[in-house]
Q: What sequence folds into this?
């Protein structure tokens, strides 16, 4: 046994150790994967009934995996870069041995569940210990986390509020130390937005970076991405999950990803700071906090200039493509099953019946123009910084921020989905709290394939800043 102070299995500090810290403890034999898994389950048992972050758990399988990891560390032969690290997986992502119901009553829990999605397979191969599946909106179609199957998931900063979505359960788990790495999916902000509402880090890589299977709609819109409490953990998860998988024929060729976030400086980087993309409505507190964070980046040596990318709002075109994709999905269901789905999906299906081929072509053309505009923009700037969301978290039983003055269907996710369309990497990093004590985040957007730049800037900003912890539950 190493001479370093041993962390006890009941020590509350275990919950706040990130993956890189856990791995240091495992190497020093001051903590074991079994102790970490048991501590996580104890916290989940206490917290989950109030917040509803987890939908499936299998403690026996988790503890078996943790014991196997403990034995490997005892022999000095870890299986990989995340051996023993507790991981959660969004319910939209295939997971061998656990149901993937996609938060829908139309999908049975009986399985059999015999296949891992690429990201889950890579994590298991490198020794990760899966804690369970986290809640999401049905078929990940909206940016809050409630569904007819799982009910309402709640924000750890204020349980009356939403954690955002669709990867809301993952964000809650990350915020409360219910595991170290949390895997979500981002087709329009579904990693970054809940990360922002819950005060944690969330990365949408380049859409082609992490192999994605099975695809749920047109290619190159969604991406698998990690949520965590440190930039180093995001980089670690990305490194593992970006390994190739032949099931995704859209994925980029395998190759190294430069992710040395600790040593990187942002001195000399050209950063554009956009308050509102030229058209968004942003609440004053959020504007102030993100502007201060942009100033901090300048103080670290970056050349920060206030500038907008120069594209008009793509909201209507993005909605057209989303309605077509989800409308097709719901239209394939038998009539009896259609009655089981979220009412908002039925509305999208009904609207999809009125779309034409010309509507879809026009939307795709607008997407291409946006991508070209951003490619040109990044010839002037290395990075773009924006708010992540224009409002703080709102009521948990609402699908949009009605109390903040928005109407149904109004664009409150304005900063996220443009960069799903352009396929660029984007990261949400906390920058402070509102007067109500709710998290605010900025978004850092990079050129295609440059997750290294995005992570480097986030690490430089976050260095020396403690991530806030939600009030004790």
A:
């Amino acid at each position: 046994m190493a001479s370093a102070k041993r962390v006890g299995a009941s020590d509350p500090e275990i919950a706040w150790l990130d993956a890189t810290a856990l791995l240091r403890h495992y190497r020093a034999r001051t903590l074991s994967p079994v102790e970490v898994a048991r501590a996580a389950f104890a916290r989940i048992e206490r917290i989950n009934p109030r917040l509803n972050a987890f939908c499936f758990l299998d403690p026996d399988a988790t503890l078996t995996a943790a014991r196997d990891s403990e034995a490997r560390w005892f022999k000095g032969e870890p299986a990989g870069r995340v051996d023993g690290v507790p991981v959660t997986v969004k319910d939209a992502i295939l997971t061998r041995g656990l149901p993937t119901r996609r938060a829908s009553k139309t999908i049975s829990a009986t399985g059999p569940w015999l296949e891992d999605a690429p990201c889950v397979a890579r994590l298991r191969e490198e020794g990760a210990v899966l804690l369970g599946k986290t809640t999401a909106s049905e078929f990940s179609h909206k940016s809050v986390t409630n569904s007819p199957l799982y009910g309402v998931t709640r924000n750890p900063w204020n349980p009356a509020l939403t954690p955002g979505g669709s990867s809301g359960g993952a964000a809650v788990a990350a915020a409360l130390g219910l595991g170290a790495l949390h895997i979500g999916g981002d087709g329009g902000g579904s990693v970054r937005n809940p990360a922002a509402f819950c005060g944690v880090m969330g990365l949408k890589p380049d859409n082609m970076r992490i192999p994605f299977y099975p695809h749920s709609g047109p290619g190159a819109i969604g991406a698998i991405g990690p949520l965590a409490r440190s930039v180093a953990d995001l980089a670690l998860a990305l490194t593992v999950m970006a390994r190739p998988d032949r099931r995704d024929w859209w994925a980029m060729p395998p190759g190294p990803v430069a992710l040395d976030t600790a040593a990187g400086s942002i001195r000399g980087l050209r950063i554009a700071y956009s308050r509102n993309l030229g058209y968004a409505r942003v609440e004053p507190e959020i504007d102030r906090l993100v502007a201060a964070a942009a100033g901090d980046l300048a103080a670290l040596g970056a050349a920060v200039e206030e500038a907008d990318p120069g594209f008009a709002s793509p909201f209507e075109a993005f909605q057209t493509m989303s309605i077509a994709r989800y409308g097709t999905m719901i239209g394939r269901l038998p009539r009896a099953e259609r009655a089981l789905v979220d009412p908002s999906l039925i509305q999208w299906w009904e609207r999809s019946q009125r779309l034409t081929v010309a509507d879809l072509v026009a939307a795709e053309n607008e997407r291409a123009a946006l991508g070209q505009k951003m490619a040109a923009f990044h010839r002037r700037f290395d990075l773009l910084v924006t708010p992540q969301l224009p409002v703080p978290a709102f009521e948990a039983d609402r699908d949009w921020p009605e109390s903040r003055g928005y109407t149904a269907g109004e664009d409150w996710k304005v900063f996220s989905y443009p960069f799903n369309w352009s396929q660029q990497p984007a990261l949400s990093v906390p920058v402070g709290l509102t007067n109500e004590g709710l998290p605010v985040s900025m978004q850092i957007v990079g050129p295609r394939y440059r997750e290294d730049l995005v992570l480097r800037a986030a690490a430089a900003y976050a260095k020396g800043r403690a991530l806030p912890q939600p009030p004790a539950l």
